[in-house]
Write the structure tokens for this entry.
Amino acid sequence: MLAILAVVKKPSLWPIALKQLWRIRRTNWYTRPPFLPVPEKSYIDFRIHTAYGSSEDFSRLAGDVVTYLNWCRDWPSRK
């Protein structure tokens, strides 16, 4: 939740946050409740575990999400 709030405070990151969220959405998201294009919980748990060594350590998550979105936005892309 803190990661979401950190992104909400930075409107310049909203477009890239939506783009990245779309990229990691659950396959066939429209066939299962809650019918939202969100990632699988197991995927998020895996990413947090590989980044922090524990699925329960969220102390740096908000700052890391903002840093990652800034990196994604600034990365030169081939459009």
